[in-house]
């Protein structure tokens, strides 16, 4: 006999937890299902290096970071923007602080205290949890799950899918749900890597720079520009500065570095034209331009043979094209673009082909850079879908 409840939420990342929270708050019985042995694994992994909850900035600046999906997501993010995320975190008893760049973190930096507080609140609202329950589609009108105890059906009036994208499959976001929805005629956009590192086949001399941070640069790929930092790794370039322009690289734009973004080209040329005596070029670059070894190494890696004329060398320093082999594989990306297309959903994120089934989080076709935007988008879409599902339940 099938288990019965008002709502089933499948997926326990930030979007799924938020949707379950909204449905329970509206007084509905909620069953929260997770394929893995524990919940919110990707959120916990993100918190290991400091959980960046959101960005404390004006709405127009925040929404700009959602690119082509900005217009679609505007109503959802306007109702749950950076300020709202901070208020929500405090309501769970989490102390937060804002860094010099506007990024917001829990004072303890980790995600586990926030998750524990959130799960306790959901327990108090009556949300039931099931782990090791993998959704395998529908059996007639019921949801079908593969569980340690065998196949289990659940009858629910609404379903919220928050199944993630297709990166970090070991944590649960494996994209396996696409066949279930495409089989129902739901329009999907192909998955592509987002917030991904860059693959570079380094020359041998770069081995000494592996692990070195690259600071004080500007990165550009097409229309995307970043003043973020990067790291030279054995396989290429990593870090927030790279992630934020990876969409441009993915679309075929050249990646260009400005190694001295605070100086004009003519000023760089004038400094380079000063007599260098017996100093090596590397020492001249260090003394005249304060270029550190990491930036000098990049200049030599991608600019050799270096021009001798000061103006030409200045031009290269201000626009150094990175030779690379594309983005890291999709499963190594932090997130993905692609997923359930906007055209497949109504304004409440309900699937037009499957009434009563809503979608939220990274499984939707949108992307945003790290730095708080990605998590804010997941929370906002989860909240929106949960509220729309609750409204659907209240209708005759």
UniProtKB/TrEMBL annotation:
What keywords would UniProt list here? FAD, Flavoprotein
Query: Superkingdom of this entry's organism?
Result: Bacteria
Cofactor(s), by name: FAD
Question: Which residue windows are coiled coil?
Answer: none
Q: Which residues form the RsdA/BaiN/AoA(So)-like insert domain?
A: 192-335
The record, for Pfam families, names: HI0933_like, HI0933_like_1st
Domain RsdA/BaiN/AoA(So)-like Rossmann fold-like: from-to ranges:
6-387
Matching SUPFAM superfamilies: FAD/NAD(P)-binding domain, HI0933 insert domain-like
Presence of the UniProt keyword Transmembrane helix in the record: no
This one is known as TIGR03862 family flavoprotein
Q: Organism source for this protein?
A: Parasedimentitalea maritima
């Amino acid at each position: 006999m099938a288990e019965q409840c008002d709502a089933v939420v499948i997926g326990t990342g930030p979007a799924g937890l938020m949707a379950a929270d909204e449905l329970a708050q509206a007084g509905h019985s909620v069953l929260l299902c997770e394929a893995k042995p524990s919940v919110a694994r990707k959120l916990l992994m993100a918190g290991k290096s400091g959980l960046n909850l959101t960005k404390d900035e004006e709405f127009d600046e925040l929404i700009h970071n959602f690119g082509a999906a900005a217009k679609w997501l505007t109503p959802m993010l306007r109702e749950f923007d950076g300020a709202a995320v901070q208020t929500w975190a405090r309501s769970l008893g989490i102390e937060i602080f804002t860094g010099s760049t506007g990024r917001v973190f829990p004072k303890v930096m980790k995600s586990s205290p926030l998750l524990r507080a959130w799960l306790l609140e959901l327990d108090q609202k009556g949300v039931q949890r099931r782990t090791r329950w993998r959704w395998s589609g529908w059996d007639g009108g019921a949801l079908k799950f593969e569980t340690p105890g065998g196949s289990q059906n659940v009858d629910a009036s609404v379903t919220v899918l928050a199944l993630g994208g297709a990166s970090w499959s070991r944590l649960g976001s494996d994209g396996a749900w696409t066949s279930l929805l495409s089989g129902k005629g739901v329009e999907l956009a192909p998955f592509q890597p987002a917030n991904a590192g860059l693959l570079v086949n380094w020359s041998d001399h770069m081995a000494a720079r592996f692990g070195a941070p690259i600071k004080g640069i500007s990165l550009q790929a097409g229309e995307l520009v970043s003043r973020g930092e990067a790291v030279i790794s054995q396989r290429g370039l990593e870090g927030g500065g790279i992630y934020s322009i990876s969409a441009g690289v993915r679309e075929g734009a050249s990646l260009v570095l400005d190694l001295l973004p605070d100086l004009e080209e003519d000023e760089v040329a004038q400094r380079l034209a000063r007599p260098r005596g017996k100093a090596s070029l590397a020492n001249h670059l260090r003394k005249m331009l304060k270029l550190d070894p990491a930036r000098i190494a990049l200049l030599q890696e991608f600019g050799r043979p270096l021009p001798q004329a000061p103006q030409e060398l200045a031009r290269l320093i201000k626009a150094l094209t990175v030779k690379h082999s594309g983005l890291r594989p999709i499963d190594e990306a932090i997130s993905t673009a692609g997923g359930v297309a906007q055209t497949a959903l109504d304004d409440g994120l309900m699937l037009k082909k499957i009434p009563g089934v809503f979608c939220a989080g990274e499984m939707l076709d949108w992307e945003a850079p790290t730095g708080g935007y990605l998590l804010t988008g997941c929370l906002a879409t989860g909240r929106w879908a949960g509220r729309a599902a609750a409204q659907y339940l209240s209708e005759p």
